[in-house]
Design goal:
The chain is α/β, with parallel strands linked by helices. It is built from ten helices and eight strands. An eight-stranded mixed sheet has the order 7-5-6-4-1-2-3-8, sandwiched between helices. Helix 9 packs antiparallel against helix 10. The longest helix is centred in the last third of the chain and has 34 residues. The structure holds uridine-5'-diphosphate (UDP) and magnesium ion (MG).
């Protein structure tokens, strides 16, 4: 069976790694071609996510040299998830199967062999799962694992230790395109698609060159997005807190009345202050959480396009 494979790679300021990434992928694609596993219409599709460096120039020259390389240029930086979706939605018209991976070669290119085998066996989605996390700093490892646990605790269906290295069949990506939400958290959305799925383990290498485009600030925002896009448990937690506080204040009320009736009532300044602060804080917290969801509704209601493609490079056969 020879299928059309598109490898989709979002790139943001990746001029340092792109030439090497292209070389590795060209080798890999050539080996698949030689083995008759993929057709000559297969492509490596780079999505330039509004980079301010030479990323798009490099993609253009790669395309000039070899039609294996295709490119999509976004009109501005829209973030990793949107860039990836732009690539997938462009590829789905041509491809039978798509693999998404990072530009920095952290995702082991060789793991694609096994992903393709699973696809050939009839799986629609193959998740790349990291075997170990020893290339991460202790901090990144702890926060990442804490995040996956939290997500599972909140009842969100995500694949443990899977980032965005995955294979998807044409119909799986077509299904993904049906999700019109603006707050994109692909790791949460893809398991919602269903179909036959499996995982493939791989070792994640350190970044080839350049620096991470996910500083702590972006990582925290991404995590918050993931939680509030898929779980309403935080809002229930606030409700529960409110109920508990109400019950406690009822007991306090009875206790105060009894004390008063017994004639020991001394105005308790400290307890008063404490409850004012505590309740005030709780209310603010509640409003904050509600605000978070209202903000989401606001974003979704506008139904803005998630990206705008400026140009596409792809020579059809
Ligand atoms: N990326 C992107 N747009 C952004 C940030 C990142 O397209 O705004 C791409 C980046 O070029 C890379 C992938 O997303 O291919 C993952 O980013 P990175 O390797 O910096 O993240 P990390 O591996 O450190 O989590
Ligand atoms: Mg990386």
């Amino acid at each position: 069976m020879s299928c059309i494979l598109y490898v989709v790679i979002p790139c943001y300021k990746e001029e340092e790694v792109l030439p090497e990434t292209a070389r590795r992928l060209k080798e890999k694609m050539a080996s698949y071609l030689a083995a008759g596993r993929i057709s000559t219409a297969s492509r490596v599709l780079f999505v330039n996510d509004g980079s301010t460096d030479r990323t798009w120039e490099i993609i253009r020259s790669l395309h000039e040299e070899d039609k294996l390389f295709a490119g999509v240029n976004l009109s501005r930086n829209r973030g990793h998830q949107n860039a990836l979706l732009a690539g997938l939605e462009t590829a789905v018209n041509e491809a039978d199967v798509m693999v998404s991976m990072d530009a920095d070669l952290q995702d082991d290119v060789d793991a694609m062999d096994e992903m393709l085998s699973r696809f050939e066996e009839g799986y629609d989605i193959v998740y790349g799962v990291r075997r170990r996390r020893d290339t991460d700093t202790a901090f990144k490892r702890a926060t990442a694992q804490g995040f996956y646990r939290l997500m599972q605790g909140l009842g969100v269906d995500i694949v443990y230790n899977h980032a965005d290295y995955r294979l998807m069949s044409k119909r799986a990506v077509q299904a993904l395109c049906e999700f019109t939400e603006v707050n994109l958290f692909l790791r949460g959305i893809v398991p919602q698609i269903g179909f036959r799925w499996t995982t493939v383990e791989y070792d994640r290498a350190p970044r080839l060159a350049g620096e991470s485009k996910y500083p702590l600030r972006k990582m925290l925002m991404f995590a918050a997005d993931g939680i509030t896009s898929f779980s309403i448990k935080p809002i229930r937690l606030v409700l529960l807190c409110g109920a508990v506080v109400c019950a406690v204040s009822l007991i306090m009320l009875i206790w105060t009345l009894v004390t008063k009736l017994l004639g020991h009532a001394i105005a308790g300044w400290s307890s008063l202050m404490c409850s004012i602060w505590f309740l005030g804080g709780l209310q603010l917290l509640g409003i904050g959480v509600v605000g978070e969801y209202v903000g989401k509704v606001y974003g979704e209601a506008k139904r803005r396009p998630r990206y705008i493609i400026e140009s596409v490079l792809n020579e059809k056969e």
